[in-house]
Design goal:
Elements (H helix, E strand, L loop, with lengths): L2 E5 L2 E4 L4 E8 L6 E8 L6 E6 L6 E3 L7 E6 L4 E6 L8 E9 L14 E2 L3 E6 L1
């Protein structure tokens, strides 16, 4: 099993930046595709970004493309989400997720992920 712990959330103003981190334990992340999701109050959990197990393939939701960058360091068993140009609509609890893969697949649906962190709150004020 993989245990995931997110950190780095906080309260910022519109236009600011935050860097979220996801630390894994229990298994090496090199065999897992990773994803970032977010959930705002009263809304469903939505896809933010995903990376293949090597990190060579990444994909972003249209709403964050050009502002957010996902990266991973398999040697350190960590995944990061650099968020620039934050907007009030980015306010949500952010989750990292992992799923075991045998190739370079990435997934956009939360249903494809087996392991989740507890989430970290990001609040962007206008």
């Amino acid at each position: 099993q993989v245990q995931l712990v997110e950190s780095g959330g906080g309260l910022v103003q519109a236009g600011d930046s935050l860097r979220l981190s996801c630390a894994a334990s229990g298994r090496t992340l090199s065999s897992y595709a990773m994803g970032w999701f977010r959930q705002a109050p009263g809304k469903e959990r939505e896809f933010v970004a995903a990376a293949s197990r090597t990190g060579l393939i990444t994909y972003y939701a249209d709403s964050v493309k050009g502002r957010f960058t996902m990266s991973r360091d398999n040697a350190k068993n960590t995944v990061a989400l650099q968020m620039n140009g934050l907007k009030p609509e980015d306010t949500a609890v952010y989750y990292c997720a992992a799923t075991l893969v045998r190739d370079s697949s990435i997934y956009f649906s939360p249903n494809r992920y087996d392991y989740w962190g507890q989430g970290t709150q990001v609040t962007v004020s206008s």
